[in-house]
Write a structure and sequence with these properties.
single chain; alpha/beta; five-stranded mixed sheet; disordered N terminus
Length: 299
């Protein structure tokens, strides 16, 4: 479809009628659309094989279990909510409702109720992103990739992207920064092994240090705060803990916990025979007094 370039601050949803937005977000019932003509956006029946996926679908992973459950529901009750499509040269292209379309194929359904809308690529991309965000189906990295695609393909700035998804410009900026992580770390975030807070802390590291640090975070099950502490140590060039115990995830996690508890850097230096040293560093007598107070404090 031919695209017309718009200004950096253009919000693609401003020109989309509210009924379309409501239909995409499942706020519109099929009964409200009954009796309307095909060209007017009424509910029609389309063959499953006539439909192709949305090329702007930001969601990469679909749960096999959830699709099977939805397919079972469709076998019993049918498709309760129409999918949203637009016409293309060979049939129809999905705008919203890919899970219903995929599950319908599994259930053996041959036809689907659908609402046809005449939308351009930018509007389709925007609606697909918003649908998934509102249903909390996207990981942070999937959101980042979708926003970056809209920025690059449709020349949208961060202000326009924020307005489009009803978010703040700073949140959009933080999401886009996730794409500066190396691919393997992005995958960890996508799979849920890292949280957004972990990823933001790891962004401070150069690319050649990110993956190893991320693996340490996952292996040792570090909190976001502990990850921030780890990143500070790596950036300061402090490798003492690595040489003495970081290779053991239990030792590393214990060091982090003690450091957080005491508000000071703690190192565990194991020796032979199960013995070792606990080293607590402090920069002034006031800091030492604080450490002593915390050691005396009861839980």
């Amino acid at each position: 479809m031919t695209q017309k370039k718009r200004g950096l601050g253009f919000n693609p949803l401003l020109s989309v009628d509210q009924s379309t937005v409501d239909a995409v977000l499942n706020k519109d019932s099929s009964a409200q659309n009954a009796g309307r003509s095909k060209n007017d956006g009424g509910v029609i029946t389309i063959g499953v094989e006539e439909i192709v996926p949305n090329p702007f679908q930001p969601r990469i992973r679909f749960s096999e279990v959830e699709l099977d459950e939805l397919a079972d529901s469709i076998r019993q009750h049918g498709v309760m909510q129409p999918i949203i499509v637009r016409q293309n040269s060979g049939g129809y292209e999905l705008i919203a409702g890919e899970r219903r379309w995929r599950a319908s194929q599994r259930s053996g359904l041959t036809d689907l109720p659908a609402i046809v809308r005449n939308l351009d690529d930018q509007q389709v991309a925007a609606l697909a992103l918003i649908e998934n965000i509102q249903r909390e189906q996207l990981t942070a990295i999937e959101q980042a990739r979708a926003l970056a695609r809209m920025r690059d393909q449709f020349s949208m700035d961060q202000t326009a992207l924020a307005a489009m998804i009803s978010s703040s410009r700073s949140n959009v900026a933080n999401l886009l920064r996730l794409l500066n992580l190396v691919k393997d770390v992005q995958t960890m975030l996508e799979e849920g092994r890292l949280e957004m807070g972990h990823a933001r802390a790891l962004l401070s590291l150069p690319e050649n240090m990110q993956q190893k640090a991320a693996e340490d975070v996952v292996r040792s099950r570090l909190s976001v705060r502990q990850t921030e502490t780890l990143v500070k140590r790596l950036l300061s060039g402090d490798t003492a803990s690595t040489k003495t115990g970081t290779d053991d995830p239990d030792v590393s996690r214990l060091e982090m916990n003690l450091s957080d508890r005491l508000g000071a850097k703690v190192q565990l230096k194991p020796k032979t025979g199960g013995k070792g040293l606990i080293v607590i560093e402090y920069g002034s007598l006031d800091i030492l007094d604080g450490i002593v107070t915390r050691l005396k404090a009861k839980d």
